[in-house]
Amino acid sequence: MKTLRLLHRWSGGLIGLLLAVLGLTGALLVHEDAFLRATVPHAADAQRQDTATLAAAATRIFAAQDRPRSIVLATERKGLHKLSYPGETEKGAYADQDGAIVQAWTSNWARPEIWLFDLHHHLFAGDVGDIVGGIAGLFGLAFVVTGLILWWPTRRMFHLRLWPRMMKRAAIVHHHRDLGVLVAPLLALSLTTGATMNLKWFSQALRAPFTAPSVMEKASAAPRIKGGKLAPDLDWSKVIGQAQAKFPGAEVRTVGLPAKTGGLIAIRLRQQAEWLPNGRTMAWFDPATGAMVAARDAQAMPLGSRITNADFPLHAAKIGGLAYRLVMTVSGLALALLGTLAVVTFWGNPSGLPKRRKKVAAKQSRVKIEPAAEPRPENV
């Protein structure tokens, strides 16, 4: 138990602040749509999903000289389309549902929700940040497990407090243990789903009992069909109408142009039973003719793939309405508080010894021990 406590303390002291940052940014991002509705024109507009409106917006947006690579369409909670551009990862824009640009940016720092997401998901470090964040999530899971083990002998001292009784080490440690136990299920959920999204091997390991990784990869692969050159006057009503006819009742979520020559137009849809906000139901089209060449029903994917598709909506509170958003907000704020106070108490006293014991130990180390005097020889 002593070794476990030592590992828990030192690990928390070293990466607690990172977990705190992830928790705080995650709690803020849960309310991104509400922030946009309050600050960006047309973000509070009602969602329109009729073929004519979607086709008109796609025609206008893709006809621009500086056209985007893809469009993420408006939702029930956010009445704006989000545009992403090729080759410039930091360039983006919001457009209203008629296709008119409302706001555009060329740097992630121009929009708070953009740089917050970059910090939360990538730690401002791209793919390396993904790996670091995933590993931090695994450490967080280890903290949850070891924290429960360390709390068990002190369970009779449990007190429900949102804040330490006093800002002294003993009170903070007591509060840390009790709050950690209280939110352990929420932390386990958010940390697990976060780690699975960032670490492919971890996700595959968890889903392997349900579906082999090779089967999941094959089910998620795009069709190997070569498309023609993108037609300048492509009939977007025809393209979007075919997708809606293939999956009646599904919500059209994204429209993407070919990433390279010979690629296909890709449309993502979300069927009613799908939790993922942008769905995993797909339809692919020849850019030259607008004819549908392939489709994929997300509900027919292997079980492991369907479980994987639930990671993001569970992690980002994209299901369950306001109640679940508040639950995940509590999870993020609790992680921020636990991580911050863990760092404060650790670096304020890395040894973990009470101040009185530390003073005694320091005093004993300063005591000079004199060698014993040799006995005098007796006079003969």
Automatic annotation (TrEMBL):
The cross-references to Pfam families, in alphabetical order and at most eight, read: PepSY_TM
Which UniProt keywords are present, listed alphabetically? Membrane, Transmembrane, Transmembrane helix
Transmembrane ranges, per UniProt, are: 12-31, 131-152, 322-348
State where composition is biased (Basic and acidic residues): 367-380
Q: Where is this region: Disordered?
A: 353-380
Name listed for the protein in its UniProt record: Peptidase
